[in-house]
Amino acid sequence: MKRMRGWHRFLFGLPLILLLTHLFSVKELQQSSQTMEPPEKLNKKFDHLVLGPAAGQGLSNRLQCQGTKALNRTHGSNGRSSLEDSVAFVTVFTIYNSSVNTADDKAIKTEVGSASYNKVERSMAVLNAFINFIKVAMPRSNVIILTDPKSDFSVQRSQVTLYPIQGEYSRDKLMLQRIRSYIAFLDSRHKMLSQRPGNITHYIFTDSDMAVVDDLGQIFHDHPNFDLALTFRNNKGQPINSGFIAVRGTPDAILRAKLFLQDVLRVYRMEYMKASRMLGDQLALASVVKSKPQFDANRFSKTVAFTEDIRGTKVLFLPCAMYNWTPPEGAGQFRGMPLDVKVVHFKGSRKRLMLESWNFYSSSLDIPDMLCLILASGRTKYDF
């Protein structure tokens, strides 16, 4: 009988137990939902510059920052070279007709800080930022833009010139056309100097997604015996980056640089046309460089400049760590910035960081240079 009474009491209390369990589960779910962000908020990328701790603190071979002030650069931007007024920057840039006429390209906007760009507008914004950086670091230098004669854009800036060159500027052939345009430009400079000798102008050919943050005239002063300069990195398959090529402005050096690039173009056409959209030019450059008998490729693993005579051209090899440095995506993923970076290459998704860095820099009076700003940035991917 006692067992029956206990069983009845259990059955009577069972609904109350189930009710309390249900209420507890509902309350726990409500609490957890309050502490979790919705999925779309968690995955949202920042549309503005995010500053964090500068990576590489305490490492003697990395830039040390106090806020946005660099503490241990051995060569600062204050000392201008005497050659500054005789250096011109050359880049290839075009606006594709398909981009101008496509409704989707006009409608889709990218937010960068307080600005909003469609595809054409953001390409122009990157080009203008490229020019802006040069005007700060080397204000007397000229900028020459090699472009498709059919391309419909203008740049109303002092010391900036559009230089149309006939060619095939489609996206699939742009890297191939870039070498052709460089060759055509050097050929015209050589002919001009042969007919009308005058003051020497040195040329630095770069991608338009680069930021020059220090005076580059020192290259020609410190290394007086080269014709053409390339930037190298410790990458077995692609040790040469084609985004930076310097050419001494003497008639003989311009001619030898042109002949060197013609060799590169020939190798490109023969061996790397399958990579014509990307990387083909870099593969061709490496092939021509390594074609020299007994060339020591182990020097690419060190960040020390060196010179080699390759096919009759004196080629100066400059380390990417100084003249063509690319910030990894996410500043927390790398161990700081090398000392004395002079050129920052904002490849691919880093173009947003290039625009944000310029906007932040130009709106502030308290930033002595760009390097610590860039180093403390990029906490997220800056996709376009």
Automatic annotation (TrEMBL):
Q: What is the annotated signal peptide range for this record?
A: 1-25
Q: In the UniProt record, does the keyword Kinase occur?
A: no
Gene3D superfamilies given for it? Spore Coat Polysaccharide Biosynthesis Protein SpsA, Chain A
Q: Keywords on this record? A: Signal
As recorded in UniProt, coiled-coil segments are: none
Organism of this sequence: Arachis hypogaea (Peanut)
Q: Which domain of life is it from?
A: Eukaryota
Q: What is this protein called?
A: Nucleotide-diphospho-sugar transferase domain-containing protein
The reply to whether Iron-sulfur figures as a keyword in the UniProt entry is: no
UniProt xrefs under InterPro entries:
Nucleotide-diphossugar_trans
